[in-house]
Automatic annotation (TrEMBL):
Keywords in alphabetical order: ATP-binding, Glutathione biosynthesis, Ligase, Nucleotide-binding
Protein name (record): Glutamate--cysteine ligase
Enzyme class: ligase
Any single biological process term in GO: glutathione biosynthetic process
Name of the gene encoding the protein in the UniProt record: gshA
PANTHER family, per database record: GLUTAMATE--CYSTEINE LIGASE (PTHR38761)
Membrane-spanning parts: none
Length: 527
């Protein structure tokens, strides 16, 4: 353990500072496709009884009308966090009829591209902006790629924590906002250095349905007529099957400071890309994408972690970051856990807390010109495709190192952070989940990705049949525990309010959509 990590842990172990750690906030966004009883994509509209996706704070859709997104509030307690996520699932299931939620990151059987429904958010200018953005994604990446689902973990430390960790120079030269942003950016740098470990320990998408690639060339192996896989993969969802296209290839911001990150993304949302210019923005009188730039909006940039600031209605996320700094981080690389009814377990959330605390406290020097930033990216991509390969070597700042050796060293340091969190919250839950990961490094057969593949092979199941079976089991578990009358009344009131808010917005936003888009692109809305 480094001297800096040890000294910072000792500093935060003081009673007054432990109280600051207890104020950390957690939130979860869980994506999931709605499917019919056969596991085929549900082509029905988002159930009206669940509310309006444009204005509902908890139940919305992501890319497709069939891709539901369930969003918790923020909590200091993991039990409350997972409890809310479970309650949302129970209510959703009360309105799904015979449909179920697909409990895997890689999609169910998909129809032809043209038949995958894009999410509809109503006729207001704000709703149309979201719809046109998604039409642009279809042209740029294809609709099937947008049906991949995951878990997003939102996390923030108490704002009062950062001055405790500030160096004398930082305390003398940085405002509170700039200090907080700098510390979150340093956390993100460390996250990028070692996030391969999350993919190894929790990746759960080593296979996919052959239907997903729809005849496109690939380097995957055939397990059966319906299943493609890689023998040592941990997370094909996070591999270069995804958003690794030429337009985004040159972005890869290394997060040395917030200003550079913002500038890099600002350039991407401002610079035209020749291939997208060929499509244009309006075809046959209809908008097909918001612009022809490398990114339509900054959220199009696909990354495993994002610095975030809650934006006001109509405000560009980049403007929110640039003017008010980083408020929290969003971890975006976690696969849906196919063995959990709600796609993520409380123990995984606790591991993420210890992991993120480690990333915040460990020394995080800026990435230089030595290629270490690219090496981190390469480590990540190597692990998602062949992380369980015997004897796999990674690149640790230019030096080859066995994955298992590096992983054990990280678990020791993350374990020290977990011990501090247990002294904050009581019990041993954080240390227990960190300690439980060691067996996965000793024997890859214990990883979720290996368990998925073993089940397919041992039971003779296709990827589709396995996921449908697990999803049906989880659906029954949740349906057997319906929401209480009080909870159901609260959800129904929330749904009705969201419908009223969307209707009001549609009556208010009657202006010209072209002008609305131009104002949004200029970052003028919401001021």
């Amino acid at each position: 353990m480094s001297d800096l990590l040890e000294s910072r842990l000792a500093l935060l172990d003081q009673p007054a500072h432990r109280a600051l750690l207890a104020q950390s906030l957690h939130g979860i966004e869980r994506e999931s496709l709605r499917v019919d009883p056969h596991g085929d994509l549900a082509l029905t509209p988002h159930p009206r009884a669940l509310g309006a996706t444009l204005t509902h704070p908890t139940i919305t859709t992501d890319y497709s009308e069939s891709l539901i997104e369930l969003i918790t509030g923020t909590h200091t307690d993991h039990g409350a966090l997972l409890g809310e996520l479970t309650d949302i699932h129970r209510f959703v299931y009360s309105e799904l009829g015979d449909e179920i939620l697909w409990n895997q990151s890689m999609p169910a059987h998909l129809p032809a591209e043209a038949d995958i429904p894009i999410a509809w958010f109503g006729s207001s200018n704000t709703g149309m902006l979201k719809y046109v953005y998604r039409r642009g994604l279809a042209y740029r990446y294809g609709k099937a790629m947008q049906c991949i689902a995951g878990i997003h973990y939102n996390f923030s430390f108490s704002e009062a924590l950062w001055p405790v960790l500030a160096t004398p120079d930082e305390a003398a030269t940085l405002s509170a906002q700039d200090l907080q942003s700098a510390k979150y950016v340093a956390l993100i740098r460390n996250f990028n250095r070692v996030s391969w470990l999350l993919m190894y320990l929790f990746g759960a998408s080593p296979a996919l349905s052959a239907n997903f690639l729809q005849g496109k060339p690939h380097q995957l192996r055939q397990l059966d007529d319906d299943t493609l896989y890689l023998p040592y993969a941990t997370s094909l969802r996070m591999s270069d099957l995804g958003y690794q296209n030429k337009a985004q290839a040159g972005l890869k911001p290394c997060y040395n400071d917030l200003a550079t990150y913002v500038a890099k993304l600002y350039d991407a949302v401002s610079q035209p890309w020749p291939e997208y210019e060929k499509y244009g923005t309006i075809r046959d009188g209809e908008w097909i994408q918001l612009n022809t730039n490398i990114l339509q909006i900054e959220n199009e940039y696909y990354s495993s972690i994002r610095p975030k600031r809650v934006a006001r209605r109509g405000e560009r996320p980049l403007r929110a970051l640039a003017t008010r700094g980083v408020q929290y981080i969003e971890v975006r690389c976690m696969d849906i856990d196919p063995f959990s009814p709600v796609g993520v377990s409380e123990s995984t959330a606790r591991f993420l807390d210890a992991f993120l605390l480690f990333c915040a406290l460990e020394d995080s020097p800026p990435f230089g010109e030595s290629g270490h930033c690219q090496a981190s990216t390469n480590n990540f991509l190597t692990v998602v495709k062949e992380g369980r390969k015997p004897g796999l070597m990674l690149n640790q700042e230019g030096t080859p190192i066995p994955l298992a050796t590096w992983g054990r060293d990280l678990l020791e340091r993350i374990g020290a952070c977990a011990a501090l969190l247990d002294r904050v919250h009581g019990g041993t839950a954080h240390q227990d989940i960190v300690a439980a990961q060691a067996i996965k490094l000793d024997d890859p057969a214990h990883t979720p990705s290996a368990k998925v593949l073993a089940t397919l092979q041992d039971e003779g199941l296709s990827f589709h049949a396995f996921t449908l079976k697990m999803s049906q089991q989880h659906a029954q578990t949740l349906r057997n525990q319906p929401p209480s009358a009080e909870q159901e009344a609260q959800f129904r009131e929330q749904a009705a309010q969201s419908l009223a808010e969307q209707y009001a917005l549609e009556q208010k936003e009657m202006g010209n959509f072209d002008d609305f888009v131009a104002a949004y692109q200029a970052g003028l809305l919401g001021n």
